[in-house]
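User: structure tokens for this one?
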Amino acid sequence: MREFTFDIVYEVGADPVMDVFIDHPTLVAEALHSCVTEDSFWRVERLTGPTAALDAVERLRVDETVRTASITGTDCTADRTHDVLDRSDDERVIYTHLEGIEGGETIQTLSARYLPPGSLFCTTRRDARHNWRIFMQSDEKVGLLYDALSANLRPELTFRMGHLCEADGWGHDSLGSVELPPDQRRAMRAALDHGYYQTPRDVTLDDLASTLDVPRSTLSYRLRRAEERLVTAYLGET
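Assistant:
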């Protein structure tokens, strides 16, 4: 199995969904996609972040007048299905199916044209960046996909190459199913985003508590409880 990775970076105003991510730095979306045909694909996207940001993305997803899939200067038309599979104050899971895509191009339609059937897309959205990791049986025509992306990308979007190599693991494990209370999840996400877990640390616990507007002792407790849950799940303890 081969993998091809790259980023698409969006300028402000280039895409209404990505603008929500730019406006809310703690908003994160992880998704699985696959092409059904050259003009249809499905996506299941899990978003975590502030309620206001989740509400904004959900409204954009279900609004038929908003076109967000195209990476070209021409909008796509398609028959669209969007369903919210799970909803809470700090999480949404949204299923999307597009078929009969015409007009513009999406990364999925270009990939379906050049990559083997059954290729799988794992993506992450954060801030202005949409990261793509494509798993495929053969990379024989991946150069054609690269050329098509470069030729079709509209000026407000920037392509940044990652790598092309043998697939190095799935990148997901049992921790993906670990449930954290919303306050612990927000604390851990903020700690990660602000560099608290970097070596050396980019932020102190006091500064992070000030950013989150919570007492230092409260933040410390939430992080310790979240870390305990994650370590326990990772080691398979009860």
